[in-house]
């Protein structure tokens, strides 16, 4: 039951992140893109840029700094490397972003979170 609740909360957080991104002028290109390397929560575009975004939700803001780690970012980066050509047009930049969410807090959008 806990796993199902976590899955539902994660999907709700992804929808919240999508709505926030759209309000910031981003176009959502894809959701929950699965690859052999892992899953990308959101693929979004602004002019000249495609972002592969990992979304993390925690029940308390104090937990947010521990929500993302190098292992998870490496998996998103590997997945983005596999499918990036499907989303980015010639000359568009690509990057890995993170959006952290917690009740009562505005979204924390960490840009260019992975730099190998």
Automatic annotation (TrEMBL):
- What InterPro entries does the record point to? Restrct_endonuc-II-like, tRNA_endonuc-like_dom_sf, UPF0102_YraN-like
Q: Which family does it belong to?
A: Belongs to the UPF0102 family.
GO molecular-function term, one example from the UniProt record:
nucleic acid binding
Superkingdom of the organism of origin: Bacteria
Q: What is this protein called?
A: UPF0102 protein PK98_04925
């Amino acid at each position: 039951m806990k796993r199902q609740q976590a899955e539902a909360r994660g999907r709700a957080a992804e929808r919240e992140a999508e709505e926030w991104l759209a309000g910031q002028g981003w176009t959502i290109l894809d959701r929950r893109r699965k690859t052999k390397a892992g899953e990308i929560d959101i693929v979004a575009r602004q002019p000249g840029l495609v972002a592969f975004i990992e979304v993390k939700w925690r029940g308390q803001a104090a937990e947010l700094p521990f929500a993302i780690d190098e292992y998870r970012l490496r998996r998103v980066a590997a997945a983005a490397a596999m499918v990036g050509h499907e989303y980015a047009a010639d000359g568009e930049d690509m990057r890995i972003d993170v959006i952290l969410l917690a009740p009562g807090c505005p979204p924390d959008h960490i840009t260019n979170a992975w730099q190998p």
